[in-house]
Amino acid sequence: MQSLSLNRSLREYRRLASDWTLLLGLVVVVVFLAVAIVWPLLKILGVGFSADALALYRKYFSSPVYLRIMWNTVELGLVVGAVGTLLGFLFAYVQVRLDVPLKKFMNLMALLPIISPPFAVATAAIVLFGRGGLITYQLFGIRNNLYGFRGLVLVLSLSLFTVAYLNLKGMMEALDPALDEAATNLGANKWAVFRTVTLPMLIPGIAGSFLLLFVEAIADLANPLVLGGDFTVLASRVYIAISGEYDTLAGAVLSLILLVPSLTVYLVQRYWVSRKSFISVTGKPSGRHQSIRNPLVRWGLFAVVMLISLLILMLYGTVVVGAFTKLFGINFDFTLANFEFVIMGLGSQAMGDTSAMSAISTPIAGLLGMVIAWLVVRKSFAGRAVLDFVAMLGIAVPGTVLGIGYLLAFNAPLKIGNNVLLPALAGGTALAGGWIAIILAYVVRSVPAGLRAGVASLQQIDPAIEEASISLGADSSVTFRKITLPLIRPAFFTGLVYSFARAMTSLSAVIFLATPEAKIMTAQILNEVDAGRFGNAFAYCVILIGLVLAVIGLLYVVVGTSNGVERDLGRAR
Amino acid sequence: MSEQTETGALRLENVTKIFGQGSSQVRAVDDVSLTIQSGEFVTLLGPSGCGKTTTLRLIAGFEFPTSGRLLLDEKDIANVPPNLRPMAMVFQSYALFPHLNVFENVAYGLRLRKMPEAEIKEAVNIVLHMMNLVGLERRNPNQLSGGQQQRVALARAMVMKPKLLLFDEPLSNLDAKLRTQMRMEIRRLQQRMGITSVYVTHDQMEAMSLSDRVVVMNRGKIEQVGTPEEIYQRPATMFVADFIGRANFVETDVLALDGRLAIVDVYGQKVQLACSPEIRVGQKAYAMIRPEAINLSSRTSNYMAEVKTAVYLGNSVEYEVEIEQNLLKVVDYDPTPGMMFREGSFVSMTFDPERSYLLPK
Ligand SMILES: Nc1ncnc2c1ncn2[C@@H]1O[C@H](COP(=O)(O)OP(=O)(O)OP(=O)(O)O)[C@@H](O)[C@H]1O
Ligand SMILES: [Mg+2]
User: Fold this and answer.
1) Does B99 sit within 8 Å of A278, measured CB to CB?
2) What is A143-167 written as a DSSP string?
């Protein structure tokens, strides 16, 4: 039995190997994943299960302070998961089922967080709603303490709900209107249809969104750093351990503690909840839904979603206005000093470095995503599920955890005996000033988006089209380049856009990897926020958003078509 | 049950449905008037886009007529929302609820009626039994074959004991054999339960075999309402004659008229044909001759024709013959083995006036 299946997989590999370009692709992918994901994670596991570490676990799990931190993390994940999913649901419902004005605007506001740098919303929230906030204090005279749990829930929900929105919107559009009609025909009124058909059909989507938001919320580092106050979560504790206490062991142990819920919840989401789905999101809306006519429901929902949209607009508006003012909330005089600081002054290197590293990582991540998608969907070989899973780890593993893994794996050269197998890629003495590790981290974090979009897109393309190309004499690589890639171009485009935006705005995975030769914009923003120089932080954010938008525009011209980008983005998460 | 057979009479009065505005207007249903008796099985038949589905959805209440009235048992139902209309619809896509199993799908409507659990169980089990679905109660819709899904959809409608059953091409997703089988099952059930039924299809075989009366529609209007025999043998218009089965049309002069019988000239021969009431003496008209009403033989006769094509189909042979520059379709349903006429040969032709009909031009 065993030898038989072994035989079969051997035959599969031999068949793969007979097409050398295919083999090359597979080898590149496997080597990349091994170096950029598996190796760093193994390093953390190695440190995290060393004899010294075991004592730390005992300490953490018996210390009220650390138990508190763990509970804080879970609590934050649960509440942000719930609030974010609710926001996503409301926005999606209004978009798909209501006939109301300004839907385009609300859609735009829901998508804005994709390109938003970390700190933008948090900082804007501080100057608007904090202790001396423009609205809370100067308008209403309330000394509001935004720092802590409430502030984090507010800012994280508003920054992360896009995932839930895109997810649920895709599902609602794919719901067959005939089901609603069948229920109506059997005697259900509008509320009963919603309760007994629409909602149950969306439950897997709701659960999936909740779990994804949970994972993202507990992995987030930027917001707890600036808004956490006394409310410490695991991610920020890891950061303090590494950056403040220089205690790599504690960092690794805490990362592993953070990794457990992240990975578990992610796995539940991906391999269990998403299987339960009744709806296959094909990318094409399945028909006209009757829009809701009850004025109370219609305008009530409209008002809620509109208010939230305006809140988002106000937060980003504050970022823009704040970038051009001397001291937001106190001195509104127009100034360009903030931009001068970023563009001509200290910030310019970070801007250049980050853009360059993101630009390098983007095509690599985009192509890798498509190649892995193609291998996973189209080729049969033992271990393709593993390939897919490992590639997705880039998003399932919290950025801080990955960052520590990189520190451990790449700070020193990898040697066997006296031969250097791999020189140091991160840290002060690293090859190419530490650029390589950061680019690798960017790629790893970005591949999953393109991969999911590519898989979804490929599953809808008849394999016979590629077979036709092969039978006409093209080999695998020609077929991939001439047939597959053009057909999945929207997914490829999605992957590229997402990769660039993700790289430019990522913080947690790379903050430990920054060197004097490889400066990271988001880390610089953190410095400015920490020092209370909000104007500079806002200017950074505005430039970052501007750069991302400009590159998306450029990609649009070069790669073309934005068809279904948002939907693909929704799937990509 | 017995009281239900008395109700369910439906009347459409000058119903019109216009979609869109301005230049992009579509008259999907155009001044349709129709009376359906209680317990009757009526089919809406017509080519794609003729407004069948729209008519059905107007009846179900999913669309609202632009003008005209809908009466159920002589009561205007304009203001009755679709969920309160005593009708059950069987959808083309079945529209089974994917998150509910077979039993729960069928029980859905009864639960909304707040029927006691025991009664629901009993009612559902009876229908499942009737529809041959026993043993599949716990399956999910995606674990059923197309035919089984179809039967669940039917069961879900039947269990409501509606006054009116509405079908929108319920068999179009099934293969040919299953389609015939389900067709007979639907007819048998409908007759047993005596529920008034409106059935939409573009398949004339389905319409003919199922219905008490067929409504032929074209471009939103009704062309003819009649029993399957009537619409086949005495079509009201050339559209109907052509759409129901196949037909040859031969242009003729009406020489004389005797009630519903006319004397006409067909290729130089005087023949007596049943005719439409609109036929007048001295006018041009069309003799509709069904392909199976034409007989070919090697003997000589009044009509000689040349065989242009001959296609052997096993149980029949189809010819195209040319006579006076006209091509006529001919079907021989009982071909003598080895006696097929060759292409290019000349044959004599006769046709059965009893099975032909005269239509106005
Ligand atoms: N919601 C709508 N908006 C605009 N036009 C519509 C709408 N629904 C139907 N129509 C138009 O009305 C006409 C009749 O459509 P209907 O669906 O009733 O046709 P049908 O007879 O059921 O055709 P088929 O056999 O293809 O199902 C068509 O021209 C169609 O394009
Ligand atoms: Mg139709």
Assistant:
1) yes
2) ----TTHHHHHHHHHHHHTHHHHHH
Q: How distant, in Å, are the alpha carbons of A30, A263, A382, A445, A448 from that of A368?
A: 11, 23, 20, 12, 10
Backbone angles phi, psi at A415, to 5 degrees: -125, 145
* CA B95–ligand 2 middle distance (angstroms): 15
Is there a contact between B95 and A184 if contact means CB atoms under 8 Å apart?
no
Does residue A186 sit in the same domain as residue A217? Answer: yes
Which structural domain range is residue A192 located in?
53-277+290-321
Give the distance (Å) from ligand 2 centre to CA of residue B56. 9
Helix (H) or strand (E) holding B286: strand B284-289
536-565 of A, contacting B, C-beta below 8 A: none
DSSP secondary structure of A239-255: HIIIIIS--HHHHHHHH
Residue B180 DSSP code? H
Written as six digits, the tokens of B61 are 């209440």
Q: Which amino acid is at A97?
A: R
- Each residue of B159-204: pLDDT tens digit? 999 999 999 998 888 888 888 888 988 998 888 888 999 999 988 8
CB A373 within 8 A of CB A454: yes
- Atom number of ligand 1 nearest to Cα B63: 1
For residue B311, give the H/E element and its range.
strand B303-312
First to last CA, chain B: 48
* CATH code where residue A150 lies: 1.10.3720.10
Q: What's the rounded Cα separation, in Å, for the pair A404 and A346? A: 27
If asked whether residues B199 and B311 sit together in one domain, one would say no
CA nearest ligand 1 atom 20, residue? B49
Could you tell me how far CA A169 lies from the centroid of its own chain? Answer: 18
Q: What is the DSSP letter of B284?
A: E
B22: left (phi over 0), alpha (psi -120 to 50) or beta: left
Which of A176, A192, A196 lies at the smallest CB-CB distance from B95? A176
* pTM of the model as a whole: 0.80
State whether B108 and A196 contact (CB < 8 Å).
Answer: yes
Q: Give the atom of ligand 1 at the shortest distance from the alpha carbon of B50.
A: 21
What are the CA-CA distances from residue B359 to residues A375, A572, B240 (Å)? 66, 64, 11
pLDDT tens, residue by residue, B250-265: 999 888 888 888 999 8
- Residue A91 and residue A546 in contact, taking contact as beta carbons nearer than 8 Å: no
Rg of chain B taking only CA atoms, in angstroms: 25
A442 and A305 assigned to the same domain: no
CA of B52 to the centre of ligand 2 (A): 6
ipTM: 0.76
